[in-house]
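S.,

Sequence below, as promised.
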Amino acid sequence: MNIRLLIAFLLSIVLFVHENASAQFCGTTGAFSITPTEGCAPLTVKVSNLKPKSESVAYAFNFDKKRDTPPAYNEVSTDSSFTYQLPGTYTILQFGSVGGTGFSQCKDVLVKEVRGPKAQITTCQNGLIQLEIQNDSIAGAYDYLTIDWGDGTQQIFTPGASGSLFLQHAYPTTAPRPDIKITGGYKDDSCQSSLKTTTLTSQTASDQLKDIRIRSVEMLPTGEAKILYQGIDKVPTEVLIDKGDGQFVGTGKSGQTAGAQSVTIGGLNPAQVYRFRLASKDFCDNVMESPIVSSMIIKEGAFGLDEIISVSWEHQPNTEKLLEYQLKRDGVVIFSSADQLSYLDKDVKCGTTYKYEIVAIIENDVRSYSAPVSLEPKTSTPSDVGEASVTVKDESTIATTVELTGEGLTSTYNLIVERAVLGNSDFSQISPPGNGSLQFDDTNVNTNQNSYCYRFKYKNACNLTSPDYSPPVCSILLKSGTAEIFWNADQPFTEAVDAYDLFVLDDSGNTQDIIPKQTSTSHTLDLGSETEFSFQIEAKDAGGRFLSRSNILKIRREPIILIPDAFTPNGDAYNERFEIKAYFISEFKMSVFNRWGEVVFNTSNLTDSWDGKIDSKEAAGGYYIYKIEAIDASGQAVSKSGSFMLIR
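The prediction came back faster than expected:
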């Protein structure tokens, strides 16, 4: 049984046996020994399996008894030894199987601390020294701590429950400062040869007041400033404020507690910039002032556009380098910059109020937050639609496109499209309510019978509408005759047509040539040199702002004749007749012969077809011969002949 299967098996056994599988992986059915069971870090232990007839035995050397899941594959080992680098109490889980039945057992290993305690000293001119020992997991692991002051005196004490440990010692004022050594110890004298000593010299004395600094300044809309700072135990610290005159004065907010401290200063103007710093006095009456942190203000900017919110921000100089501004909208960062003091927010909508705040990120992980400001986008009345086009796509579809310029444009809108038959002033709306597209396809038209006119009006997201409808733009339908193409002569605009341009297109729709047609409404084709081509007519008004484009007309002059190779007139309504399909043919004649050369069918009408009968009687199955003589659209003779099969 491999380790992965064994882990799965262990999980199934535990969940089956126990109603609550949490912390139940440490069973009592295993058997193993640990040598040694405790010692000094780093500690190497060896495990020996004592379970008879066991197989696939594995160990998790750092198992959490409280977990409700089995150890992961990478937490499991079949090794018989393991080295613990750090101190602590560790649980070893053994598991395996005997005859298909799983077993498990847990035992603990104690790894003792040997590292030197963390400490720092404050030295005074009068010979006094204050020693601060961090009462963390290292110091707390020992039964006692020994301080060798370096002048022949020692001090032994037991670490407290919490907080830093402060000790004071006096040296002669003129005497050199000796090294101070701190060592942990155990009552049973274990780990004596492995214990590490922390040595502090006068050169390593810490200027602890530098650790006292403002972590964040937050201006509140209520006219208060919330200051979060890092304090040191037994070091009095007061918050100072500069209200704009360059002079720092006390706020009466002070403390002398270690860790994160929070104070609130009232009676301020959230729209004014203030500067803050801390003044601290240590054990030796040394005074230290912390770096200055300026508050931030954010306000509506001077720049205004439709459905755009302009914001700007200010602050006073900070002592430390400003790394970045972060602009938040409704609690989410939308913009960041190292030096820009304004921003245009275009991702806003009319009728919605947004809350903005600016955050200054200063080196050493310092933050300054402005009081939030609520703003709503503004807009103006939109202009009339001044540019539009219509394009005939096919016999039942006309596409309209509008281009917008001017003021009052918003990200969401309703473009109203109205239609009337050319020559009729009875316009009616055809666009759906809330039409938010500048392109609209009208699919309820018959361009073979009528030309249609369209006009447009714009309504923005703030419910402001353009004063009037645009001038109407009407459709053009391009058609072909035998040797020419032509389009409707009705004016597509209220004003006169400036000119028609005939676009010659390739198979991909790319323009190959533009033929100016002035005000003509037809074009004669060159049938001798052109066999396949596409055309589109474009009309523009005198100002060039309104366009009407016809449908794309594709003309292929090469004759196409499609002839089947068999047909089955058996009454199943499928492939019942011998039918010819022909394109670009002006004259047509076809004869069908049997194998003896007798004419069994003859027609001059392209729409006629043979039903497989001769003199109203069914013709025999087999091969027949056809002969086709035709004249194409350009007057050229076309002949085709061949055979096909009649299948009964």
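The helical segments are 3-17, 137-140.

Coffee later?
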